[in-house]
Amino acid sequence: MTFIECSDLSFSYENKTVLSKVNFSVEKADYICILGENGSGKSTLVKGLLNLKRPSNGKIVFSKGIKSNEIGYLSQQKSMLKDFPASVFEVVLSGRLSSMGIRPFYTKKDKAIANKNIEKLGISHLKKKSFVELSGGQQQRVLLARGLCGTEKLLILDEPVTGLDPLVTLELYDLIKMINETEKMTIIMVTHDAREAIKHASHILHLANKQLFFGTTEEYKKTRMAEEFLGGGKVD
């Protein structure tokens, strides 16, 4: 099932094009990693997929299988929560806001979904702790649980491992892969870590202010582009 179809997309800021000629589709249970250097248009594309920025050309079509408010999101920035006096449970539960519509309160179903995702991410023992007192790795698990509360279909992650130590980074990658495989959750992840992307992703989208490549990871591994992006190292 196709969730999203992107056709001839371009994005601009102040009439300056920052990303162009983007064509790809997102299917159920895909794990797509978006690669590219800083300033290549990765985060701009994510804003487009989240309906936070309109394309200057082309279109993004959501199928009947998913709505724009059924997308979970883990932002690159945690600064908005840095000094927010909330418990882990409250942060995770806030992921239900996009599903509430005009309801002014959380339901038992909302709270059950929050508890389910807290358990799934292995953070039940942190449930009553203050979010700001957690380590970076623990905070990312909490925010990942929060993102899952907004969706059962598609999760978008923008540089989810930035600033984490190597061991915690590997644990988070394993968690994301587990969610993709066991939940059949479609994943779109922006990352600079091309080697880990190649290990885990089913598809690669490579940007450099335009689309350079979209296809399966196995196809990408055979390209000179992949070798150059990995600094000339072996593509495993």
Automatic annotation (TrEMBL):
Domain of life where this protein originates: Bacteria
Keyword Transport found: yes
Protein name: ABC transporter
Pfam families linked: ABC_tran (PF00005)
First and last residue of the signal peptide: none
CDD domains associated with the record: ABC_Metallic_Cations
UniProt key word Transmembrane helix: no
Family statement: Belongs to the ABC transporter superfamily.
GO molecular function: ATP binding; ATP hydrolysis activity
Species: Anaeromicrobium sediminis
InterPro entries (alphabetical): AAA+_ATPase, ABC_transporter-like_ATP-bd, ABC_transporter-like_CS, Metal_Ion_Import_ABC, P-loop_NTPase
TM stretches of this protein: none
Keywords: ATP-binding, Nucleotide-binding, Transport
Family annotation (SMART domains): AAA (SM00382)
Domain ABC transporter stretches: 4-234
